[in-house]
From TrEMBL:
EC number(s) per entry: 1.14.13.148, 1.14.13.8, 1.6.3.1
Catalytic activity, reaction form: octan-3-one + NADPH + O2 + H(+) = ethyl hexanoate + NADP(+) + H2O; N,N-dimethylaniline + NADPH + O2 + H(+) = N,N-dimethylaniline N-oxide + NADP(+) + H2O; hypotaurine + NADPH + O2 + H(+) = taurine + NADP(+) + H2O; hexan-3-one + NADPH + O2 + H(+) = ethyl butanoate + NADP(+) + H2O
Keywords: Endoplasmic reticulum, FAD, Flavoprotein, Lipid metabolism, Membrane, Methylation, Microsome, Monooxygenase, NADP, Oxidoreductase, Phosphoprotein, Transmembrane, Transmembrane helix
Cofactor section: FAD
Entries under PANTHER family matching the protein: DIMETHYLANILINE MONOOXYGENASE
One Pfam family in the UniProt entry: FMO-like
Single GO biological process annotation from the record: lipid metabolic process
Name of the protein this chain belongs to: Flavin-containing monooxygenase 1
Species: Gigaspora rosea
Subcellular localization(s) per the UniProt record: Endoplasmic reticulum membrane; Microsome membrane
Membrane protein topology class: Single-pass membrane protein
Top-rank taxon, per record: Eukaryota
The UniProt record lists the keyword Endoplasmic reticulum: yes
GO cellular component terms listed in the entry, alphabetical order: endoplasmic reticulum membrane
């Protein structure tokens, strides 16, 4: 029987989910509150957290969709307009737009007695709320939704400007101002560096009083996130982490009092290069956590007793919370019991089998709710392939509710032991190993024997020891792609080729 499927969100995750539906003769309806596709990357949308100077921190070889390679002659790391262009090319090439209801906000998704879902939505130009019934709902609403604000004494009294980093777009808006950036994630460091070109002084407040692990995009002549399937399987993450730590320490002038104390593997490295130059030149000055914002002289006091005066703007780059407010919490969280067992950080997170299915409701799935030291896009694509294979009955049915609960508990236990306690880390995956696991169940894993039989030994060596790329999962099985072999070969040619054909990326 034809299944009626709703997809919520037309960012990267929603787009690839539509594509995987169409590949398998399912016609979904995708609800998107914005007027265009791309989610966070759509800088014209009012809530986009992306600033114009952003550069991906995952390489094109690792970030590409598996059957629509980012052109090989584009740079290793994409800038903002290249990302937008790639997303538009993907949507256009696979004719995804007709399946999207734009300017349509999903207000509520509720379960019916017959276990189907009622989706209540509103089209922005019409006042009237509408409802539709679906057999399956796929939530692709994104991790970066509700700006997270810290709480400091005196925030309400401070006379300078205070803003969240999602409102930050360009440095020139801060010309000759004294700016304090709060946070030490990718956006905080990017913004601090960029501000040095316009602001009169930039300060960076880091909660723990230490810098995070910071790495450039290329290290020891290698693209940072490039790995081979062999290394990903054979070299334990702890050893890879220690290697990277050593390389970072050898290459960068970490002021000794700001060196990170946690091992790299317990958190994740921030990709940035220029920050060290700014630190050594005093253009960015690191401060510890804020103690209090004061009403007089735009003063800010820090936990070490130091005080800054005349701070014109405070930019809180303190992250985002998931906002699935259109769903009742019990659908995707573990409830009070889990809160008691794992603590608050974990409670707010999705209690999902394989980070996809809530054990109580196997006809709703969540795509794109992962973080890791790897690109999100191909992970969302693989998740979508897995979910569609589940809907179509191509893979074995999900285990019982109690088995799924047990599996989630085990994976959270192991994350808790390995990594720092943070909301982000609870959604953490090992990029390659997670992809490998799902691909084996779907039937698109590049098994040794089958690759040699179909493509020969030399090509197998490329799959094993060459640069890993998600295109590997299009060589075999359902929805394989004839162009995969050639694309993999191209991606394994000189990765450091300078861009010579300006037209190919700007046209
Ligand atoms: C500055 C920055 C740099 C980044 N760099 C990288 C990188 O280098 N590599 C990488 O892999 N990732 C990076 N990311 C992460 C990025 O979030 C992912 O790459 C990816 O774009 C997430 O896509 P998504 O579709 O899951 O979510 P989103 O892009 O957030 O899309 C969700 C969509 O759902 C829609 N939506 C939400 N709620 C509703 C509702 N109720 N009704 C209707 N529509 C709704 C939203 O409007 C949005 O369009 C970066 C993020 C930022 C902010």
């Amino acid at each position: 029987m034809h299944k009626h499927i709703a997809i919520i969100g037309a960012g990267i995750s929603g787009l690839t989910t539509i594509k995987q539906c169409l590949d398998n003769d399912l016609i979904p309806i995708c609800f998107e509150q914005n007027s265009s596709v791309g989610g966070v990357w759509q800088s014209e949308e009012p809530h986009s957290p992306v600033y114009k100077s952003v550069l991906t921190n995952t390489s094109k070889e690792m970030s590409t969709f598996s059957d629509f390679p980012i052109p090989a002659d584009w740079p290793t790391y994409l800038n903002h307009s290249q990302i937008e262009k790639y997303i538009d090319m993907y949507a256009e090439n696979f004719n995804l737009l007709p399946h999207i209801k734009f300017n349509t906000t999903v207000l509520k998704v509720s379960i019916l007695p017959d276990k189907r879902w009622k989706v209540k939505y509103i089209i922005q130009c019409e006042r009237e709320e509408k409802e539709e019934i679906f057999d399956f709902v796929i939530v692709c609403s994104g991790l970066i939704r509700k700006p997270r604000w810290p709480e400091y004494k005196g925030m309400n009294l401070f006379k300078g400007e205070q803003m969240h980093s999602h409102k930050y777009k360009r440095a020139v808006d801060f010309k000759n101002k004294r700016v304090l950036v709060v946070g030490c994630g990718s956006s905080a460091l990017d913004i601090a560096v960029e501000l040095t070109h316009a602001a009169s002084q930039v300060y960076l407040s880091v909660r723990k009083g230490k810098l995070p692990w910071i790495t450039p995009r290329f290290i020891n002549d290698k693209v940072l996130d490039h790995t081979s399937r062999f290394s990903a399987h054979m070299i334990p993450p702890s050893i890879r982490g220690r290697r990277l730590e050593n390389n970072i320490m050898k290459s960068f002038p970490y002021p000794s009092h700001l060196k990170p104390t946690d091992p790299l593997i317990a958190s994740y490295p921030i990709v940035n290069f220029e920050i060290f130059q700014c630190l050594t030149a005093g253009k960015v000055i690191v401060k510890p956590n804020i103690k209090e914002l004061k009403s007089e002289n735009k003063q800010i006091e820090f936990v070490d007793g130091t005080v800054l005066e005349d701070i014109d703007v405070v930019i809180y780059s303190t992250g985002y919370n998931i906002d699935n407010s259109f769903l009742e919490e019990h659908i995707f969280t573990g409830g009070c019991e889990v809160e008691q067992e794992f603590g608050k950080d974990f409670y707010r997170l999705n209690w999902l089998y394989k980070l996809l299915f809530p054990p109580k409701y196997p006809n709703i799935a969540f795509i794109g709710f992962t973080v890791g030291a790897g690109a999100i896009w191909p992970v969302s694509e693989m998740q979508a392939r897995y979910v569609i294979s589940h809907i179509k009955g191509f893979i074995k049915p999900l285990p019982s509710q109690s088995e799924m609960e047990k599996s989630i508990r085990n994976s959270y236990e192991s994350i808790r032991k390995k990594y720092c306690r943070s909301a982000r880390n609870a959604l953490r995956i090992n990029y390659v190993l997670y992809m490998e696991t799902l691909s084996k169940e779907i039937g698109c894993y590049p098994y040794f024997y089958e690759i040699i039989k179909k493509f020969g030994f030399r090509f197998w060596k490329l799959i094993m020891f060459g640069t890993f790329t998600p295109i590997h999962y299009r060589l075999l099985g359902r929805n394989s792609w004839d162009g995969a072999r050639e694309a993999i070969t191209l991606y394994n040619q000189d990765n450091f080729k300078p861009i010579t054909n300006e037209k190919s990326i700007n046209s």
